[in-house]
Amino acid sequence: xxxxxxxxxxxxxxxxxxxxxxxKEKVSYDANQGxxxxxxNLLRWGYYLGFNNYDFNFDYNQDLRDIYVKRSxxxxxxxxxxxxxxxxxxxxxxxxxxxxxxxxxxxxxxxQGISYNNNDLVRDVKATYxxxxxLVKFSAKRINNFKPFVVGGFSTALNLSSNENNPDDNKNGxxxxxxxxxxxxxxxxxxxxxYNFKFTPSIRGIFGINDELxxxxxxxxxxxxxINNMKTRGIFVNFxxx
Length: 242
What we know:
Layout: H1 2-20, E1 43-60, E2 68-71, E3 73-84, E4 89-93, E5 96-105, E6 122-139, E7 146-159, E8 176-177, E9 180-193, E10 198-208, E11 213-214, E12 227-241
Antiparallel strand pairs: 1-3, 1-12, 2-5, 3-4, 3-5, 4-6, 5-6, 6-7, 7-9, 8-11, 9-10, 10-12
């Protein structure tokens, strides 16, 4: 699935981009035909598709072996609303759906004096986020049909898969995380101007601000007692169409 999508993007850029991007002809907006760049519009709309790779950053109370996080590739899809401030600054909101999965692997050192089995050493953390970033985009001057930019801002996410209010905890195999999370985001990308729309590949880092761990009822729980805080960090790779 992932390889097919990347192949599609590559073929798309090769077919359309080679003819339009790598020429000296500058794509401009044609109001009569309704095509080309709409950079001069006060409001612009679009959508994005992409991938994510989420991790956790742990701070520990005691110096035990780190909890290993096995990451996997997730999927992003969403909409874009862009407010033009001037030729180089835009304010944008990008509500979307983000799906990710992580597995936590514990060392046996967390279970000293406690009986356990192999299943106790692994915890699945699945998340389906309604992700809403508010970002500021700083663009460089357009060069022919290319315009690089950096972007940064803050976001909030509602985890639809959260089990924060689940009365069961890790003794029953339930690793719990908070429902609401705050992030700050930093990234960069490049706008590619095509005849009929603007295509934008970008990469962005996402960093959790609040502690997302819901601790077990037992204050000496081997799964949560040594964790001072647990925050998400990850990478987005998005492909935007406007």
